[in-house]
Write a structure and sequence with these properties.
2 helices, mainly alpha, 57 residues
Length: 57
């Protein structure tokens, strides 16, 4: 579980952005047997290793 609590919109944005990066050829941050970029991004999010931060006002 991520250490910071995200809203469902922030979670969707982070996972979507990371899935796009993966689909464009970015290196994976975890070892996985999955092929779908969205599933890989969800795994990375749940492992709390996605290098994306959320700025709030």
């Amino acid at each position: 579980m991520p250490t910071q609590v995200y809203t469902r919109y922030e979670r969707a944005r982070i996972i979507g952005a990371r899935a796009l990066q993966i689909s464009m050829g970015a290196p994976l941050l975890i070892s996985t047997s999955r092929i779908d970029p969205l599933e890989i991004a969800i795994e990375e999010f749940n492992a709390d290793i996605i290098p994306i931060t959320v700025k709030r006002r």
